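Example 116.
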Amino acid sequence: MSIQLISQSSLVAGLILLISSSAFAADGAELYKAKGCTACHGEDAKTPIMPAYPKIAGQSLEYTTQQMNDIKSGARSNGQSIVMKGIMAGVSDEEIKAISTYLSGLGGEKKEAEKK
Ligand code: HEC
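Predicted structure in complex with heme C:
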């Protein structure tokens, strides 16, 4: 009886862990859509609407975080950065991190090439 109880509670704990970790992973994906990033970078983050807009899927967490912070602060102001700056005003540091985590987990072009 007690053994059954223990295995049941560990199953519940396992399920909670599974649900919370997948909820975190979904967070960045949700934000990517909710913040309107798809409009310019594409649903899959590698089909930008303009050739001059970057593909951002599969890029490292550190790099995208840095670039988003720089565009937000104005430290990065390329010819095209201004297009994105207004959007970044409404994206918090935590949201930048969540989106970057999501983007870094996506297959970028290089990763696909590596598979072959
Ligand atoms: C209105 C169009 C537009 C929207 C919306 C937009 N971006 Fe961008 N984004 C751009 C452009 C254009 C650049 C390139 C800026 C430059 O040339 O400096 C860029 C650059 C970036 C970069 C840097 C890429 C690199 O290789 O350096 C990242 C990361 C990024 N965007 C993520 C996002 C995220 C996340 C969102 C949603 C919160 C978003 N963008 C919304 C247009 C947009």
